[in-house]
Amino acid sequence: MLKIVHVPFIASLLAASSPVVTAFQGSSEDLPQKDASSRSTDAKLADQERPKPLTISLWPNQKAPNGDGTFDSNNAALTIHQPPHPNGAAVLICPGGGYGGVVIGPEGHGIAKWLNKHGITGIVLRYRLPRGRSAVPLLDAQRALRIVRVRGPQEWHCDPKRLGVMGFSAGGHLASTVATHFDEGNPAAKSSIDRQSSRPDFAILVYPVITMGAKTHGGSRRNLLGAAPSAELVALYSNEKQVTPETCPCYLAHARDDRPVPPENSRLFHAALQSSKVPSEYLELPSGGHGLNGYQGPMWDAWQQGSLAWLRKMKIISAAE
């Protein structure tokens, strides 16, 4: 079985030994195994029952805002993966790619299919690439949440009060930006979409970029903020500095040996969440690097099992799921 132990270094950051800061210790033998034929049969049955994914454009009339009064003819898109037996929970998935691309397969559609196995609707966001326009990915993600809150209950069996965000690497930065930069919507807006809140109900961040400071991922920062951002812009998108008591509950996972995106990113964010008394849990993994061994193996399995357990504890999903 999985063994969870405290991480002394992180506990010292919080000036206490916290039960929500954990490290995975174990091997693949600790995880339940199925033979290849059983896994193949299960996957085929699930695919037969699952509704076909639906892709929709995010912005009307190919007119996507850039955040500075100008508009972009390129559009963002959502792909909704519905489970055969939805439980009402839904997750907006932000794949990584250093803000220079979108790793939409393993960190997008693959994650949605995994969530579907647990009754959770997976909604993959193909956000626009910023190219120095820092507001662009956030605007896309905020609109995505608003759309799901309007259309989700009737069309995709989504509970608008159990709508979270998940992100990987630079997509984890986007997800943490969504978690810390939000509004309640515009009550005077003509569109029902614009009247919705953009605050997620929870966030799951996996090897995320968090800071734009010294421990950031250089390529992500350059693509998002440009070559020479101001100190104010760096601070604005250093999300460990943007946490408040209103930030949504968060689950984080990061490998200790991640070199492109050092685990200090998750440590800083978790410490800020704890300081603001926001419910949060951080799983620090002993190995796996960036991408956790290519999205497979015991380290990859550990964050998935840990995040599901956390969702049950937060009562987002039931104990049976």
Summarize this structure as a short list of keywords or feature phrases.
alpha/beta, Rossmann fold, ten-stranded mixed beta sheet, two-stranded antiparallel ribbon, 10 helices, 34% helix, disordered N terminus
Describe the structure.
The protein is α/β, with parallel strands linked by helices and 321 residues long. It has one domain: Alpha/Beta hydrolase fold, catalytic domain (Rossmann fold, 3-Layer(aba) Sandwich). Helices cover 34% and strands 17% of the residues. The chain is built from 10 helices and 12 strands. It has helices at residues 8-13, 36-49, 105-116, 136-156, 170-180, 218-225, 231-236, 264-275, 292-295, 298-313; strands at residues 3-6, 21-25, 54-57, 64-65, 71-72, 77-81, 90-94, 121-126, 163-168, 203-206, 250-255, 280-285. Strands 1-2-12-11-10-9-7-8-6-3 form a 10-stranded mixed sheet, sandwiched between helices. The chain has a two-stranded antiparallel sheet with strand order 4-5. The longest helix has 21 residues, at 136-156. The two termini are 19 Å apart. Residues 1-19 and 27-34 have low confidence and may be disordered.
Give the gist of this structure.
The protein has 321 residues and is an alpha/beta fold.
